[in-house]
């Protein structure tokens, strides 16, 4: 049961304009990028995916998209991948907070210098708009809730810093060079193709993987911590809305979530129940630096992009479990 990001006739008309587009998706063999690629291919856009497969998988790239194997840090390859493109969806990144703490220089190279390289190439290629995968990590550990974009930036890791630097680069390229850009601060995204095997796997894919393989799911803390768990269809829709917005878009930063939060124990039980199972977690000590609660204020996304979620948490869990049941 896939969730359709096109809900109304008006959506169909708006997103239909992408049929004439040529889109580059950096990191398009990864979880979120592959869903954006799939939606664009189904809309009839010409889609290119540039991915070095350090975290993604070739099999995630939809047929109908052109796959280019390599790094965004390879300037010549990036320039040729970008040639003739109208839209760029920049998803490639070092995606893990602990990995960024272990390798801050690598994080800056890929997430900061790499993002600047994507913008420079986009400007040179005459791209119409760049959409950037920013992160709620920008808000740190104790933001007001629900968290609006006006909350202070409070970076707690090289990863969070690099994502905020990426937003500033988006705004800088808009102001200095007139390149249309927008940064979408994703909250906790989940859905099919999210990799459960990484040591830093997101909690929903880790719960699902444990339950499917008869292992005991682990919860760090009492399970009462909450997140704005956001089905990936909402992120795809936000990217399509940003790409087709008639507003000029010049470096704005907007939250993308559902505006609702769910605690971890409820999340675990929802996955188990969708699988037709019971789940008894093993509780472990709270991890240092873990945020207790997180939820997006999505009013700016509504005002700027006409964004509203197309899928609730429950619908997202049902779609995810259906995808693994086959
Ligand atoms: N998943 C979330 O909840 C979440 C939340 C906030 C922000 N984000 C951001 O969204 C984006 C996509 O995240 P995801 O969850 O799909 O992760 P992912 O790891 O599935 O996707 C990232 C992709 O980037 C590719 N990549 C890495 N380095 C590259 C390079 N040098 N050149 C080309 N490709 C490279 C990887 O191979 C992978 O396919 C990232 O920028 C991430 O920081 C994700």
Describe this structure in words.
By secondary structure, this protein is an alpha/beta fold. It has a domain at 9-189 and 231-257: Rossmann fold (3-Layer(aba) Sandwich), CATH 3.40.50.720. It has helices at 9-16, 31-42, 75-82, 97-102, 104-125, 158-177, 203-212, 232-244, 264-275, 299-305, 313-325, and strands at residues 22-26, 46-51, 65-69, 87-90, 129-135, 180-186, 188-190, 218-220, 226-227, 229-231, 250-256, 262-263, 282-284. It has a 7-stranded parallel β-sheet with strand order 3-2-1-4-5-6-11, sandwiched between helices. A two-stranded parallel sheet has the order 7-10. The protein has a two-stranded parallel sheet with strand order 8-13. Strand 1, helix 2 (31-42) and strand 2 form a beta-alpha-beta unit. Helix 2 (31-42) crosses helix 8 and helix 9 crosses helix 11 (313-325). Bound molecules: nicotinamide-adenine-dinucleotide.
| Main β sheet profile | 7 strands, parallel
Poorly predicted regions: none
Strand arrangement within the widest β-sheet reads 3-2-1-4-5-6-11
Instruction: State the CATH topology of the domain at 9-189 and 231-257.
Output: Rossmann fold
| Overall mean confidence score, pLDDT | 95
CATH level 4 superfamily of the domain at 9-189 and 231-257: NAD(P)-binding Rossmann-like Domain
Question: Helix- and strand-based class?
Answer: alpha/beta
Annotated CATH architecture of the domain at 9-189 and 231-257: 3-Layer(aba) Sandwich
Q: Judging from the principal axes of the Cα atoms, what is the shape?
A: globular
Count of DSSP-assigned helices = 11
Strand content: 15-25%
Distance between the termini: 10 Å
Query: What helical percentage do the residues reach?
Result: 40-55%
Q: Tell me the radius of gyration.
A: 19 Å
